[in-house]
Write a structure and sequence with these properties.
This protein is α+β, with helices and mostly antiparallel strands. The chain is built from 8 helices and 6 strands. A hairpin with an 8-residue loop joins strand 4 and strand 5. Helix 2 packs antiparallel against helix 4 and helix 6 crosses helix 7.
Length: about 375
């Protein structure tokens, strides 16, 4: 008997299916190739030039100074608000003590009334040993009633005032919290800008740092030339004024120079004291938010210098620029404050010859520099 074998099943691919598979494989390979080429062809961001790095770093330092002035303003406001809160809380505590005293007085009257049982006058007359005793007691109760009414009035007034003071203290505490929040935000902003600037500088090679230093020297040299030109013009103006004073006249010259006012009087005396203080701080480091005595920011230095001369200046550049008489650059006198940038974020003290003493920026010390190192916003004579 012949055995029957099960026929083998052969899977034959059709030409169409082979073409489909080949097409998918080709497409996949093409996709991988394109992705690879795209990754290789993706353009890399060009490395910034030294000039661009310098511009970026200078911008970050300037932004940090703006944030520093915001920090200074918030800190000053927070300190003032804290003093207000402390005074209000102290007053509220004293008011509470007076209210407690009024409450004790009312308690005394209440106890007295309890002891008498609150009897009406007829009952008191019947229980009195004699009419005179009743009359005396009646007069006493009348006086007590008057005092009791006054005690109630006093208590109500003390209670109302205590409520008002508590509400005011609560509002002041809320404002203090807002100032503290603003202070924290400004501090974080300053730290962030300075950290970014340090990071940019840390990426530079030795050669790039040398190139950056060269750019800085060129900037300083250009500023020095402009300072020398201002000094020359001011010297010529002073000579012209001296010549005019020699001319026959009414003899009423006040000795003023540079077109300003009161150079020979109290202003120059105070300015000398302020400048002497500023010079004594040279070499001390710039630290944002600092007011001395070991470090300063720009407005902290000018504030401390003029305070040494008996003149109180506000804390921030934005407020200092509002104090005193505005003067033109050509009329600057020693002691005048020179402000920089459109946002008034920096200030220095003029010393003559087109130069100033200022606390420049993080990483630098208090020093003399041309007032043309930065774009001038305007100048003020503070005293």
């Amino acid at each position: 008997m012949a055995s029957h074998r099960k026929p083998r099943t052969r899977v034959l691919s059709s030409p169409g299916s082979r073409r489909t598979a080949a097409g998918l494989t080709t497409a996949a390979l093409a996709s991988v190739t394109l992705l690879s080429q795209s990754a290789e062809a993706a353009p890399r961001a060009p490395k910034p030039t030294i000039e661009e790095v310098k511009q970026k770093v200078d911008g970050l330092y300037r932004q940090a100074e703006v944030a520093t002035q915001k920090y200074n303003a918030a800190k000053e406001k927070a300190e003032e608000q804290r003093e207000t809160v402390d005074k209000l809380l102290d007053a509220a505590a004293k008011r509470a003590e007076r209210m407690n005293e009024s409450r004790r007085t009312l308690g005394t009257f209440a106890s007295a009334q309890y002891r008498t049982g609150g009897m009406n006058p007829t009952a008191q007359l019947m229980l009195a040993k004699d009419p005179q005793q009743f009359v005396d007691r009646s007069h006493l109760m009348e006086r007590l009633t008057g005092r009791q009414k006054q005690a109630v009035t006093d208590y109500q007034e003390q209670q109302a005032e205590a409520t008002r003071q508590r509400a005011e203290a609560t509002r002041s505490l809320e404002r203090l919290q807002e100032s503290q929040t603003s202070l924290k935000e400004s501090k974080q902003s300053v730290q962030g800008k300075l950290a970014e600037a340090r990071q940019l500088l840390s990426r530079l090679t030795a050669q790039e740092k040398a190139r950056l230093a060269e750019l800085e020297r060129k900037r300083e040299a250009a500023a020095e030339r402009k300072a020398e030109e201002l000094a020359r013009k001011q010297a010529e103006e002073e000579r012209r004024q001296r010549e005019e004073q020699k001319q026959p006249g009414d003899g009423t010259s006040d000795g003023s120079t540079g077109g300003g006012s009161d150079t020979g009087g109290s202003y120059s005396t105070k300015a000398d004291k302020a400048l002497a203080f500023a010079r004594a701080q040279m070499g001390k480091p710039y630290v944002w938010g600092a007011t001395g005595p070991t470090s300063y920011d720009c407005s902290g230095l000018t504030q401390a210098a003029w305070k040494a001369a008996g003149v109180d200046l506000p804390r921030t550049t934005w407020d200092q620029v509002k104090v005193g008489e505005r003067v033109a650059t050509k009329d600057l006198q020693p002691g005048d404050l020179v402000f920089f940038y459109d946002d008034i974020s920096h200030v220095g003290m003029y010393i003559g010859g087109g130069k100033m003493i200022h606390a420049p920026k993080p990483g630098a010390n208090v020093r003399e520099e041309s007032i043309y190192y930065m774009p001038i916003y305007g100048s003020v004579r503070p005293a």
